[in-house]
Amino acid sequence: QVQLVESGGGSVQAGGSLRLSCARSGYTYSPYCMAWFRQGPGKEREGVAYITSGGTTGYAASVKGRFTISQDNAKNTLYLQMDSLKPEDTAMYYCAAKRDAWRLFLPETWDHWGQGTQVTVSS
């Protein structure tokens, strides 16, 4: 049973920073991919960043240069460092995991999800 638990969300002013964490457990397979998605009020869930088992990363255009995805395999934890936050970054942020590296920004292709952590950026 794969479990993903996010933490680190909160409220911050524009220009500030937050670091999200996703603790994972119950993995029975390798390799795997991990990602962060977000869903703002009245919006569809969208991909933010991903990292493959080989360490390849990818970012949505809206966050590239401001957000950094990383993972600590020893701690079984995925991170998302978010800098220069903007009000439009306000959303529920979700951690996701799957085995393949196909269509990594498409939410429907991901198998496992966390419960989400709220990020609110005020102007």
Task: Explain how this protein is built.
The chain contains no helices and eleven strands. The chain is mainly beta. The strands form two sheets. Strands 2, 4, 5, 6, 9, 10 and 11 form a seven-stranded mixed sheet that branches. Strands 1-3-8-7 form a four-stranded antiparallel sheet, with no helix packed on it. A hairpin with a 6-residue loop joins strand 4 (33-39) and strand 5. It is globular.
Structure summarized in a few sentences:
It is globular and about 40 Å long. 0% of the residues lie in helices and 50% in strands. The chain has no helices and 11 strands.
Helix and strand topology:
Blueprint: E1 3-7, E2 10-13, E3 18-25, E4 33-39, E5 46-51, E6 57-59, E7 67-72, E8 77-82, E9 91-98, E10 112-113, E11 117-122
Parallel strand pairs: 2-11
Antiparallel strand pairs: 1-3, 3-8, 4-5, 4-9, 5-6, 7-8, 9-10, 9-11
List keywords for this structure.
single chain, 123 residues, mainly beta, 7-stranded mixed beta sheet, 50% strand, globular
Mean pLDDT: 94
What is the H-and-E element order? EEEEEEEEEEE
Count up the helices.
Answer: 0
Poorly predicted segments: none
Rounded to the nearest angstrom, the distance between the terminal CA atoms is 40 Å
Structural class: mainly beta
> What would you report as the Rg, rounded to the nearest angstrom?
13 Å
Give the total of beta strands.
11
User: How helical, in percent, are the residues?
Assistant: under 10%
Shape: globular
Tell me about the biggest sheet? 7 strands, mixed
Q: What share of the residues does DSSP label as strand, in percent? A: over 45%
